[in-house]
Specification:
Blueprint: H1 2-56, H2 70-75, E1 100-105, H3 107-110, H4 119-127, E2 130-135, H5 160-169, H6 171-184, H7 192-201, E3 209-213, H8 217-220, H9 237-251, E4 256-260, E5 266-268, E6 274-276, H10 287-301, E7 305-307, H11 331-345
Parallel strand pairs: 1-2, 1-3, 3-4, 4-7
Antiparallel strand pairs: 5-6
Length: 352
């Protein structure tokens, strides 16, 4: 009797298991059919939409040309340029006819200033404009002190802030230039008096483009680059520069300002070998530190275009034809910088 009962229980167990399996399979089939019933029509609808839109020209197929030539590589420029247009009071673009350009700076434009091979002559030839070269060799951007130059360092008078002050406000600062010139004596830059006279007599309202082009002198003398508490502090590279920009724009609005960054320099070791200056961090950083801090300060003002020469013109990858030594330019180097400057000047003048 007990064997019969056991047999009956086993039979029931098997019967229950057999009934559950088909039930689960049926549920899975219904779920799969439901999903397929939703997804398949959706896919069909998407395909129809894409085909219709493509026929009507709403979707365009983009074909990427994967062929890269050596010319493409040579002409490729990856830079941090920021171009700021000249606009009217309503924000509309003004296309300039550039007739007069003033250049502030040091070595690049000051070298061979009166020669046809100089950068001022090259710029005039490329643009057809009158180029007024106010670059002073041996000068830099940041002042050594917040005090008046005649009290602290007479050479500070030739930084951008004081030069633009002379151009804009004339007599209010002119006597300080005379005093500093006398204090410098034989150390006064050879063309300093000529530049002072030019700026004193200049009418800035007639100028179409102001160019600021300095080399890496501020890095070499470890000039302080930025003041975190006072962005306009003239004893810093950033503060002196953007103070000059602001002074120009406060008085004269119908012109563009273009800042040309320093280009790549080499560092010469004691044994005569050379390497990138990036390996030699001064008191206030490497050249790239100055580059990015000045770039950020200039861009924040929204008053000047920023042309990247460190990564976009004469760089660590291509410097050999353009530098005669660790810092100075060959004629090819001058021309390359001028090409980039002309590109910036004409950036908004080309009609679409």
């Amino acid at each position: 009797m007990s064997e019969q009962n056991n047999f009956s229980e086993e039979t029931k167990t098997e019967s229950v298991g057999t009934d559950i399996a088909p039930s689960r399979n049926k549920k899975k089939m219904r779920r799969s059919t439901l999903i397929l019933g939703i997804i398949l029509p959706l896919i069909i609808v998407i395909v129809i939409i894409v085909v219709v839109f493509k026929i009507k020209g709403i979707f365009h197929t983009i074909r990427i040309d994967s062929t890269v030539t050596q010319e493409d590589i040579d002409n490729y420029v990856d830079s941090y340029d920021v171009m700021v247009p000249l606009t009217d009071e309503n924000g509309y673009l003004i296309r300039q006819e550039v007739k007069k350009i003033v250049v502030f700076g040091n070595y690049p434009f000051a070298a061979d200033a009166d020669s046809p091979d100089g950068m001022a002559a090259l710029l005039a030839e490329a643009t057809g404009a009158e180029v007024i070269n106010c670059s002073i060799d041996g000068s830099r951007i940041g002042s050594s002190s917040l005090e008046m130059p005649s009290v602290s360092n007479p050479m500070d008078i030739y930084t951008p802030y004081y030069l633009t002050a002379l151009m804009s406000y004339k007599n209010e600062i002119y006597d300080e230039f005379i005093k500093c010139g006398q204090l410098l004596g034989a150390d006064k830059p050879s063309n300093a008096d000529e530049v002072v006279k030019t700026l004193y007599e200049l009418d800035p309202s007639e100028i179409d483009v102001f160019v600021f082009m300095y080399d890496s002198e501020d890095y070499w003398v470890t000039q302080r680059c930025i003041d975190s508490y006072n962005e306009y502090s003239i004893d810093t590279v950033c503060g002196n520069l953007i103070s000059a920009f602001r002074m120009i724009k406060m008085v004269y609005t119908n012109n563009r300002i273009i800042y040309m960054s320093p280009y790549f320099n080499l560092y010469e070791n004691e044994d005569g070998t050379t390497e990138t200056c990036e390996f030699h961090i001064g008191m206030h950083g490497a050249p790239s530190t100055y580059f990015f801090q000045v770039g950020d300060a200039v861009n924040k003002t929204a008053e000047a275009s920023f042309v990247d020469n460190l990564y976009g013109t004469i760089t660590e990858d291509n410097y050999k034809p353009y530098l005669s030594d660790t810092r100075h330019l060959t004629q090819a180097g001058r021309q390359k910088l001028i090409d980039r400057l002309v590109y910036a000047i004409n950036y908004f003048n080309k009609k679409d």
